[in-house]
Amino acid sequence: MAAATEEVTQLDVGNILLMEHLNVTVPNQLEATLFYIVGLGLTRDPFGAVSIDNMHVNVGSHQFHLPTREAQVVAGHIGLVIPSLDALERRLTTVQPRLAHTKLHWERTADHVQITCPWGNQIRAYEPSPRFGEMRLGIPYIEFLVKPGAADGIARFYEQVFATPARASDDGEGPAAHVRMGTEQRIVFREHAGELRAYDGYHIAVYVANFSSPYRFFRERGLLTEEIRNHQFRFQAIVDPASGLLLHELEHEVRDMHHPQYRRVLINREA
């Protein structure tokens, strides 16, 4: 009976329905186009950020947002599902000469291609597999490195503040909090004993069904970094919900279901 209950629980989605985009700034739009569009084989959104100072890049139902500023680098890595790793390596080879002066590097492993973007972000690209459900192109997860001892509190934060399934466990790669995002995505907060890269302002955007409860939590504690505007608010501090102790910093753009961008159909090429 316990096993059956746990199996049913795995079907729960929770209040966070979608992690839509990761926003990281880049210093050069041409080089970003070479890497994200030509190299990775992704698609520039023709409807969002149509300018020479920003770019929205479609990845299945998800996106990268890439405004022009000093480069931001995620402390951790970004997971991608790409239809063909062989084709990915061929595309990266074509752009390598024009990005030779950057940090661009990649290496094939048993099940993924480990990529360093021109500015140092780490990406692991996988082919579709049962591990990622029905996803054939998308961002199935992002893994952030956090200080030792933070995983338990981070899991409680997402469970209690966002009412979304989260658990802290050692999965063989060290203690980590695993947070469900809808039916096919997750965020992993991996404890790291070494020196952590200072947080430099990158953010994620998530959609929630119950918008008011988390909003009240952050407002009552003075943790909002941006009040409600255009169907969204922002916060940055992930805290222990009981003590208020700061556990990690990651700006969240929290959107309600009335946001005009929710589940907008995104145009994608065959990557």
Description:
By secondary structure, the protein is α+β, with helices and mostly antiparallel strands. The protein has one domain (2-198): 2,3-Dihydroxybiphenyl 1,2-Dioxygenase, domain 1. It has five helices and 16 strands. The chain has helices at 2-9, 29-39, 85-95, 151-162, 212-220; strands at 16-23, 43-44, 56-59, 62-65, 76-81, 105-108, 112-116, 122-126, 138-146, 166-170, 175-181, 185-191, 203-208, 224-226, 232-239, 246-255. The strands form two sheets. The protein has an eight-stranded mixed sheet with strand order 2-3-4-1-13-16-15-14. Strands 6-7-8-5-9-12-11-10 form an eight-stranded mixed sheet, covered by helices on one side. Helix 2 (29-39) runs antiparallel to helix 3 (85-95). The longest helix is centred in the middle third of the chain and has 12 residues, at 151-162. The protein is globular, with a radius of gyration of 18 Å.
